[in-house]
Amino acid sequence: MARLFGVTGYSGAGKTTLLVKLLPLLLARGLTVSTVKQANAQFDVDTPGKDSYEHRAAGAGEVMVVSPRRWALMHEYRDAPEDSMEQLLGRLAPVDLVLIEGFRDWPHAKLEVHRPALGKPLLCSSDPTIVAVASDMPLAGLTIPRLALDDVAAVVHVIVTHTGL
Questions:
Q1: How far is CA 122 from each of CA 51, 138, 141, 143, rounded to the nearest angstrom?
Q2: Which of 7, 39, 93, 105 has the fewest CB atoms within 10 Å, measured from its CB?
Q3: Given phi > 0 = left and psi -120 to 50 = alpha, else beta, which region is 84?
Q4: CB atoms closer than 10 angstroms to residue 127
Q5: Cα–Cα distance between 71 and 84 in angstroms, integer?
Q6: Can you tell me the distance from the alpha carbon of 54 to that of 136, in angstroms, rounded to the nearest whole number?
Q7: Residues 6 or more apart whose Cβ sits within 8 Å of residue 107
Q8: What span, in angstroms and rounded, lies between the C-alpha atoms of 125 and 148?
Q9: What is the DSSP letter of 153?
Q10: Per residue in 99-139, pLDDT tens?
């Protein structure tokens, strides 16, 4: 099973920006990496009017879209409960590391991305699964490591060290 590590924080903190910068450095170490991104309930990867959208709208439980370059599988929950993280991870091909963006309440090791300018509280004060904080400003009173948000190499070091990769 792949090692897991999360990137969490409030909207606008820079989670995706950081994650996109982490991937090339992790890949350069020879690691295979996949990501799981939590989205809001209204997100859709499809477009009304496209055939695949029409398949789902007509009631298909799953629609696979395939091209010579990629494939995507869309699964509609309809009235079924959302899959657990374990079920979702089981759908991924084997890799060395899965980076999870979001899923604040799931109990995996995480790095918090924090920007004091957003006016939001630190999540690490109430979440023991957060092992470090990456911030654009110094933070007083932390009991876990604080990294500069732009020090991507230091964040990679935390991930690799914490996951044993």
A1: 44, 13, 11, 12
A2: 93
A3: beta
A4: 14
A5: 23
A6: 44
A7: 129
A8: 18
A9: H
A10: 999 888 899 999 999 999 999 999 999 999 999 999 999 99
- φ/ψ of 119, rounded to 5, equals 75, 20
Residue with tokens 């999360």: 6
Residue carrying structure tokens 């993280």:
85
Two tokens, residue 30: 């020879």
- Measure the CA–CA gap between 80 and 22, rounded to whole angstroms: 34
Domains and CATH numbers, the chain: 3-40+84-163 (3.40.50.300)
Q: Is the pTM of this model over 0.85?
A: yes
Q: How far apart are CA 157 and CA 26, in angstroms?
A: 10
Q: Identify the CA nearest to 4 among candidates 114, 111, 79.
A: 111
| Three-state DSSP class for residue 50 | coil
